[in-house]
Amino acid sequence: xxxxxxxxxxxxxxxxxxxxxxxxxxxxxxxxxxxxxxxxxxxxxxxxxxxxxxxxxxxxxxxxxxxxxxxxxxxxxxxxxxxxxxxxxxxxxxxxxxxxxxxxxxxxxxxxxxxxxxxxxxxxxxxxxxxxxxxxxxxxxxxxxxxxxxxxxxxxxxxxxxxxxxxxxxxxxxxxxxxxxxxxxxxxxxxxxxxxxxxxxxxxxxxxxxxxxxxxxxxxxxxxxxxxxxxxxxxxxxxxxxxxxxxxxxxxxxxxxxxxxxxxxxxxxxxxxxxxxxxxxxxxxxxxxxxxxxxxxxxxxxxxxxxxxxxxxxxxxxxxxxxxxxxxxxxxxxxxxxxxxxxxxxxxxxxxxxxxxxxxxxxxxxxxxxxxxxxxxxxxxxxxxxxxxxxxxxxxxxxxxxxxxxxxxxxxxx
Length: 414
What we know:
The protein has helices spanning 16-30, 60-63, 84-94, 100-117, 134-140, 153-163, 167-176, 179-186, 197-206, 251-259, 278-285, 300-309, 324-331, 344-351, 362-374, 376-385, 387-394, 396-413; strands at 2-7, 34-39, 50-54, 124-128, 145-148, 191-194, 214-216, 237-240, 266-269, 292-294, 312-315, 336-339, 355-357.
C-alpha cells in the first residue's frame, strides 16, 4: 500500500508523536509499504525509508513564552504573519488556544491534495493525533483515513481542571484543549488506533467513537540489549521520566511520597525545573530541594543509561494511555512502581512485572518504594524475566503487524 502519514510534530525529541512516527513508518516500510510523511516542526532526522515533506508552522504557541520583543513575527519575512493560517495561529494563541492541530490538518491536507494532483495515489491516510477538520477534506475525496489516539485530550482536560484553583486557570484549561473538534472528527474517520483498552474505553465514552472502529494495537518500545544481571545500585536513586507540567503525570504525589522516605533516597527527574509553579512551592515546603536533581531532556542513549542506573523507576500518573517509561524501565531490568491508573494496570500485567499502588496515594507509593528498595535483587530479577513478554507484545515489529492488519480491514470496508 502507499500510505500518507500526517504528524504535526515530527522530531523524536518532541515527544511521543515523533517517536511513534519514526519507528512505525520504518517497520511498515520493511513490510513493503511505500511511506510518504507530511510533518510539522520540529522536523525529524533523516528517514531514508520514507519520503518526508515538511509542513510550515510558525510555532506561535511555543514562541509565546519568549520574552524578547517581536517574538510573534515570522522569520525572516515578518509580513508572512498576514497569511490566513499564520494569522489564525497567532490570534488564537493570544487567547490561550492550541491552534497547531487544526492549522496543521489544513496545511497537511492541502499538501496531500497537491501530491494527488501530480498523479500519486494513496491507498490510505494515517494521521498521528491531530484529529482535526483537514482530515475530513481527504475523506471527502474518497481516501480512507485513520488516526492514532494514545488517549483522548478529554483526559488531559479533566486532570487540568482538577488542579486549577483560579478563574484564569479554569479558563485556560477550557480553552486550550480542542476536545470538541477532536470528538467531531474522530467519529467520522474510518478507524481509530489506540494503545490500550483504557484509552479505547475513554474514546467510546468521551468521543463517542463506535467500538467497531476502535483498534487496539498497543504501542511500541525501543528495546536496547538487556545486559547481564546487575548488582544493587550503591545510590538509592528514584527516576521520574515525564513532563512536570502535565497534571496527568502525578509528580505531586511522588514528591509527597519522597518526603516520607529516608533522606538517603534521592529523586532524579528528566525535565527542567518547574519555576514559579505549585510544584516548585511544594518542593520548597517539603524541603526536598537537596534531594532532587532536574536533569532536563536527554538523548536516547542517556535515557537508557538513566533507566539502568536507577534503583526504582516510579510512574505515579493519574492516567496513562500506555505508560511507555514503565515498559522501557522493565525492558532493561529496572524495578518499577506505578499507579493503578489508565493503561498501567494492563501493560504491567502483560509484562508480568512491576508493582501497582492506588493512584493519588503518597503513603502507599512510599511504602511500595521502600519495599522494592529492601528486596531490590528479587525485584530486579522479576523485571529481567519480563523481557520476553515485552518483546512479544510491545516490539515495534509486532505493533507494525497489528497496524498493517487494521489497514487491510479498513481498505476492504472502504
